[in-house]
Amino acid sequence: MSASAQSTVAFHDRFAQALPEMCTPWEAQRIHSPQLLVFNEPLAAEMGLDPAALQSSDGSRLLTGNLVPEGATPVAQVYAGHQFGHYSPRLGDGRALLLGEIVNASGNLRDVHLKGSGRTPFARGGDGQAAVGPMLREYILSEAMHALGIPTTRSLAVTSTGMSVYRDTELPGAVLTRVASSHLRVGTFQYARATGDVELLRRLADHAIDRHYPAAAKDENPYRALLTDVISAQASLVAQWMLTGFVHGVMNTDNMTISGETIDYGPCAFMDAFNPSTVYSSIDQAGRYAYANQPAAAEWNLARLAESLLPLLHEDEQRAVEIATAAIGGFEADYLAAWSRGASEKIGLRHEADGDAASVLVQEFFALLEEHQADLTLAFHRLGAAASGSAEQARFLFDGAAGFDDWMERWLQLGPDRDLMSHVNPIYIPRNHLVEEALASATEGDLAPLRQLLNTVTRPYEERPGLERYAAPAPADFGAYRTFCGT
After folding, report:
1. Is the dihedral angle over the CA atoms 211, 217, 221, 225 positive or is it negative?
2. Same domain assignment for residues 144 and 232
3. Quick check: is 456 in a domain?
4. Residue 461 placed within a domain
């Protein structure tokens, strides 16, 4: 390997070695002219990687899997999954590879993963390719989520392949280099359970505990502890999605991580006008994964995880079902606690201190948002100014309705904390019209709008002059928004 691309950071192949039944060693497609489009230098530094080396020609080869680091064993992972409620027993990485793992500067193990790196044995007739637009979308959305403090996979780089991808039209191809706590999914456990090999399932569970929830190993029933830890992590994650208006779009069980990180930014978007029925995915005709349905979808997915873990929860099947049912029963309380705490902070109140009054005001405010189809992000941001006595901009969003004035009077009597609000209510999110503008320009070769958008949304709480258009809703002629999975 070229010294210019070889990092002093050691790569590992722990998943490949620990669970060979759950993956297939594979090579990325050959790319003759890789070109780095966007590179996450701060993340590279956090990973202990050499940013300058990764931006070299050999670095581009490494970021696309064409130069395999010492210690790495690229593999395509296998998993099952319920897709829109329909079970598929063998999915897996059809166009992706786990390049290897790295211990980052904080001592945590992180996956380095490729998306769009070519066909694998799990491609199921797909071409294994990815287009520039969807890979840049994941880069924008995941880095914006990280800046918002929401657990997520990260994007290290997007590299063009110089090859064409054919969807509805001919598009330029690209590879996304992704970083994650792991790529263990609910679907990973579904696949292991379906093999009938209980020892494989146990090794997978032990691997997940060691990777994400080491305290569970000390519990009298470590697999029950693993289940409850995953439930708690996912309840917190989905609550944060709901509070920021994020709609994932495809909450299949193969898109739900054991770590509690957001993964697979396909047909996803942030909501503008508040409408609980919002669906952005072009393929979600029935609204299974609409904004309002996300908590229930998460609970359903976690029930599938619980079913997969039954042989480990107790040797008696009936007792195992009781343990699993009790664990799943805790999701709603975990979710409501996380949502209520976060929602109270968004209106400048402390849920623990302000109690029932905060809960009532929160529920009423969301009802007002829905009634007036107010812009979710803008409404909470303008409440900050209203907390300091400048209420006109907030009133404008609600058409000066008496109901809002009544609500605001009662809210102000509780003395909302504007400083608290400024730390939890973003000014800038990846608004859909701006994302589309940046992706269209980037596909044509102009990356300037993308870079400006990234600079804006990765500092979401810091209001800056000259960025007013990034805080504004979409123009009226933008129309209904739909996104596509990009496969």
Report:
1. negative
2. no
3. no
4. no
Is 125 found in the same domain as 258? Answer: no
Whether 383 is in a domain gets the answer no
Question: What is d(CA 38, CA 264) in angstroms, rounded to the nearest whole number?
Answer: 18
197 catalytically annotated: no
Give CA–CA dist 133/306, Å, rounded: 36
Q: State the catalytic residue, choosing from 50, 111, 229, 254.
A: 254
Residues 201 and 177 in one domain: no
How many CA atoms within 13 Å lie on the side-chain side of 400? 1
pLDDT per position as a tens digit, 212-252: 999 999 999 999 999 999 999 999 999 999 999 999 999 99
User: What are the tens digits of pLDDT across the range 58-117?
Assistant: 999 999 999 999 999 999 999 999 999 999 999 999 999 999 999 998 899 999 999 999
207 and 334 assigned to the same domain: yes
- Coil, strand or helix at 259: coil
Q: Which among 177, 202, 305, 188 has a CA at the least distance from the CA of 254?
A: 188
Confirm whether 429 is domain-assigned. Answer: no
Helix%, strand%, coil% for the chain, nearest 5? 50, 15, 35
CA dist., res. 192 & res. 187, Å (int)? 9
Q: Are residues 321 and 298 in the same domain?
A: yes
Arithmetic mean of pLDDT, 359-388: 95
Backbone φ, ψ for residue 206 (5° rounding): -65, -40
Is the same domain home to 115 and 217? no
d(CA 272, CA 292): 14
Sequence-distant contacts of 459-463: CB under 8 A, at least 24 apart: 459/147, 459/428, 460/144, 460/147, 460/148, 460/426, 460/427, 460/428, 460/429, 461/422, 461/423, 461/425, 461/426, 461/427, 462/427, 463/427
Do 145 and 287 fall within a single domain? Answer: no
Radius of gyration of the chain (CA): 23
Angle at 263 between CA 376 and CA 213, to 5 degrees: 110
Q: Which domain holds residue 120?
A: 11-183
Domain count, the chain: 2
Are 74 and 100 in contact by the 8 Å Cβ rule? The answer is: yes
Beta bridge partners of 83: 86
Nearest alpha carbon to residue 227 among 235, 58, 32: 235
Contact indicator for 82, 304 with CB cutoff of 8 Å: yes
Residues 244, 272: Cα–Cα separation, whole Å: 10
Same domain, 168 and 195: no
